Structure formats: C-alpha cells, structure tokens
Amino acid sequence: MAQQNAPPPAPLPPDQLDGLVNRIALYPDPLLAQVLTASTYWDEVPDAAVWAAAHSYLKGDALSAAIQADNLPWDPSVLALLPFPSVLDMMAGDPNWTGQLGNAVLVQRADVMDSVQRLRRQAYGYGYLASNSDVDVVDQGGYVEIEPYNPYLYYVPVYDPFIVFGPPRPGFFVGGAIRFGPAVTLGVTFGRFGWFGAGFGWGAHTLLIDHRPWTRTYVNRGIYAHPYAHPYVRPVAPRVERHPVAAGRANDRGKR
Fold first, then answer.
1. What does the DSSP 8-state code read for residue 43?
2. Helical pair 85-93 and 95-125, crossing angle rounded to 10 deg
3. Which of 54, 70, 101, 240 has the fewest CB atoms nearer than 10 Å to its CB?
C-alpha cells in the first residue's frame, strides 16, 4: 500500500527522455505501443521473459493456446509481448531502464510520444529510416509512422542509437544501419491481447490498444483495467505448465 501511495517521480527533461526511448523509437507502431504499456508492469516482465525463452519454439496461434493453457497471470500488455522473446529479454535484462520507462509512460506519456517522434524525424531526415520489405514508413503531416506491411508478421529492428539519430559520416551507407531480426508471426487469436488495434494517435498523444485509448497513469495504476474490445479472461485457477519446456534456454536466462 505504501508503494501505491508513493508520490510520482519527477518528469524527465527532453534530452533524458530521448536517451530513454532511443532503443525502441524505431519499433513498428503496434509493437512500440505494446512495449510502452508493458513497461508499466515492469515487475511482471522478468518472469514473462523466462517463460517466453522457454517456449520460443511455439509460434502464432499455438503460442496463444499455450498462454491460455498455462493460465499465465500477467497483464495482457505483458502477454502481448510473449511472441517477442528478444524484446522481453532486453527489458528484463535492464530492469532499471524498464522501470524508468514505465514511470515515464505513467507520468508523462505525451512527452514520451514527443520524444519518439523527435528521434524518428532525425532518423528519417538523415535517410536511415525508410520503407523496405519489412516495414512501411510514412510521414503523416510531420508525424512519422512505422507500420508492418503484414499485421500478422513483425520484424524487430536492430540498430545503434548513436548512429541512426545523428548525421552520417561521409561515405557511410545509411541503408545498412538498421537491420531486422527474424520474422515473428502473430496468430489471429493474438487479437485478444489488443494487437490488431494497437498504435498511436500521434497528434492527440493517444496510445491505442485494441482500438481503445490506454489511460493508465501513476495515480490509477493500482486499479486500472484497460477496456479491451475482446478481452482475454483468465480463469480463476492456478498457473500450470501443460507442454514441453525448452529447459536449457530457460535455465540460461535464469542465470543472468
């Protein structure tokens, strides 16, 4: 209870926000929206990362079925990232960053979104950020949107923030600065975690999950429940394990 009543952290200035979000600013909009919401449940991320690593052999609707069969206890925003073990691993491996990001989303979400756009415009203007076979990059009246070409198929961008948000040195090939990880397939049933209506209303500073505004704040964080259009209802029962686990990967993750 004392933690719930603690005063909110001080807002971060723009330069610190830029340094906070630069590692995820170029994620496709729906993935970025899920990362921002999940970061506000930072205490659930480490366990989710272990589960995701142990079940990384499951894909698409098979993964969604396993989430339901195991009766996993985490918030839907965290469940939404289980198809992305590398993203959860990054978040769990740097808990201070994840907690700071989550607080920023709760306290100053509009500033976080402005920071993302500030960085995107830099990468876009320098030529690093551009459409390709994996993502569609569109300048919508000054707001740079990044969308997957296929809403069921995602590629996580890999890049060095110290490169892509600054002017390229002479002769540097900007087209190779952003790489993409292996394809991540989302099954139709991942709609229950808000995937197919996730994104942003950039001009109004709206974060959307399942086509609905996500309005969790530092003040209401203890009671907030997002109004999913097709919510995942967790049965009133204990968590279980109903299928094989890639024990080696889970153990490796737990030793870090």
1. G
2. 120
3. 240
